[in-house]
Design a protein that fits this description.
The chain is of the alpha+beta class and 426 residues long. The protein has helices spanning 2-26, 29-33, 45-55, 65-72, 92-105, 157-166, 183-189, 196-199, 202-205, 272-286, 298-307, 334-347, 361-372, 374-381, 389-396; strands at residues 61-62, 86-87, 109-112, 129-132, 139-142, 148-152, 169-170, 206-213, 218-220, 246-254, 256-257, 261-269, 290-297, 322-330, 354-357, 415-418, 421-423.
Amino acid sequence: YQRRVHGIKRLMLRVFRGISKYVAARRFAVLGTKPRDPRFSALTQNDVDYFKSILKDNNAVLTGSDDVKPYNEEILRMCDGSSKCVLRPTSAEQISSILSYCNSKKLPVVPQGGRTSLVFGATPTFDEIIINMERMNKIHDLSPYTGIIKLQTGTVLEEAEKYCHSKGYVFPLDLAPKGTCQIGGNLGANAGGLHYIKYGSLHGNTIGMRVVLADGKILDTLDAHRKDNTGYDLKQLFIGAEGTLGIITDAAILCYPKPASTSLCFLAAERYDNIKQVLINAKRRFTESLSAFEMMDEEGYELVRKNIPDVKVPFGSTKYPFYILMEAHHNGPQKEADEKMMEFVDSMKSHIQDGIISRDSTQSKHIWGTRERIPEACYREGLVSLAWIIFIAPFLRLKPCLLYTSDAADERPSVDLGGGRTIEKK
């Protein structure tokens, strides 16, 4: 069975290498072959002057080619846009004026956050005006009674997490690119995150929001109550809509009390079925304390070991077919949390080949780095083939595979990941 699985994976790898080269060569692939819609107007100097009168800041309207260039580039450098104007507003009212004007003049726009997406949703297809949210980064407040944080959606996820921690709370979302991605993009993509198993989706944790519609009208449910059964829950339409229905400018999100202690382990397994058995038992043992359960395969682990030297992978050069990262939050002391995790790992000996329990924050950082920096490791290795494999994996009884190609490695530029990290070209 294992030979059959690896044989099919090797075949798919060759297929997707070809697809990646084709997409890279065609850049926008299907989108790039379509002509610009003639119903849209082209940007004029009068339009730029109007935007400057609204934003009242020379740094808020960018038109120079060097200034605009970074906003036209997406992280994989496969689908760069051709926008000639970037607007950087600071309030919902400014965005309302911009969209009202663009709607009346038939000027196309694209909302943009931290540009960490791999699906090109924030990259202009042609010359759309970019509305970038990076200056809308104010955190309004966090109620100590309800645990609800209100903030502008240009806030970087990591800054929201730090603010919540300082108030004794945990933000319900955590992602690998948290040093760059923004709350608005997270909402637009309905991001799941590393702690989805405990805190659930943004659909469930978003209490209210302020949204500017395409014609400039503002829909404001920011002060909604958590228990509100009156009429339609309109905010749900915008979560996962990728900015197609409106631009989310502010959000109220439910946060959770910070745990007293955390236990973390990294396990190795021989078969995919072993992972499922560990998950079933972890849910029974830890119930609501289980905060993360992540699966990695041998290829992803090896890419991090090979390409990310500042991460000490848990098992070094020892290889296993599958790996599990598991975390639990506890209300008791750290010693008790570690003992619970150790008892669980001992009880799973029939399903795992090896295991490490984190001893301190440094080791936890390296364990999480092994999981979180897989995309960065893939980029260093070569262009990533996006997850089309997910659609056919269930029919072949295969686990979702991470496929990559190194054919275009020499052509890749460096990429700024935020948080002081940059991927440099080899």
